[in-house]
From TrEMBL:
Keywords: Membrane, Nitrate assimilation, Transmembrane, Transmembrane helix, Transport. It is found in: Cell membrane. It holds the Pfam family MFS_1. This is Nitrate/nitrite transporter. Belongs to the major facilitator superfamily. Nitrate/nitrite porter (TC 2.A.1.8) family.
Amino acid sequence: MESKSFWKSGHKPSLFGAFLYFDISFMIWGMLGPLAVVIAMDYPMTPLEKANLVALPILGGSILRLVLGFMSDYIGPKLTAQIGMGVTLIPLLLGWLWVDSLSQLYVVALLLGVAGASFAAALPLAGQWYPKEHQGLAMGIAGAGNSGTVLATLFANRLATHFGSWEVVFGLAIIPIVVVFILFSIFARNSPNRPAPKKLSEYGTLLKQRDAWVFCAFYCVTFGGFVGLCNYLTIFFNTQYGLSPVRAADITTFCVIAGSFFRPVGGYLADKIGGTRMLTFLYTGACVMLVGVSFLPPLPVVVVMLFLGMMCLGAGNGSVFQLVPQRFGNEIGLMTGIVGAAGGLGGYALPLILGQLYSSYQSYTPGFVILSLIAAASMLLVLVMQSKWRGQWLKKSFTSKTESTSLSS
């Protein structure tokens, strides 16, 4: 019954369009993660240089999410998404036809951030069509477009090996982004209930509120952990376990699937039992799995641990954005950009942490120990904020017994 009411409460073509846009953009955003081990054959890199290469698109996405978040609020998420897809063609063309040095590749890597900034348009486009009791699932479905990373890890190195050139992968990526642009333009529509545009100064007003920073911290860990690992795991498997570029990317794909497809599950379950309760479970699970990975067990064991850990982080992304619209419903466009930028910064930091500590200690153990401690600290923060929010907006955001039950925590 609830599933039926969900599908009747919004606009399915826009939800589909948001997912498709986010999915193909994430594929392009994550291409350098698997390709890094292939590119290193042409441009030998230190562990830290590899980490920097895969981290730069995440940094670019973090910065540009603020820009696209403001644009989404001011000119609407549909037009913002169309502009984003158009600009994405620039780094693809440069990567295909222009790059002939590592420094130029760094420029392309940073510009690929515009694809990662798609988050700031896709989620408002989907979420604004749905009432609060279904926004966790709606934004989770749209956010499941991060499954585009699966396409990158599954095909990027295969195509580079088949054509004998990693540059051609950038050229081939132009085809799906053009197709998606056409489909998106046909199917997606802005919600008639879209809030009135906010002024740029209102970013500052939001950032004066403690809860905005708390959500940034939550998403910095869940999304940052997910996207950072997506971009770095191919390097990890290649370096630690000696796997070939294609084999390392294949195993990364398996881990990425967990985080991608459990995002809507996290949003759905958060609608049922409460976002804060879900986050408590998920941060705890991520912490335990990352501790296990730090022991660098045999490959089958570490793959299972990373699969479960990524599952927790992916579901955590959906859980965070089940809460955000309830606290900042009228500022969802701005908050999507702000929180998304924080998530991007977390994703930028993760490869650098692993790369730097591996360079210093010739082991990935210290890096994964630190990541597990960050997850544990996040779980404690949820417990603290849960008690404060329960007496404030968490209960007040509901107008019926059913809504209250779905978010009480």
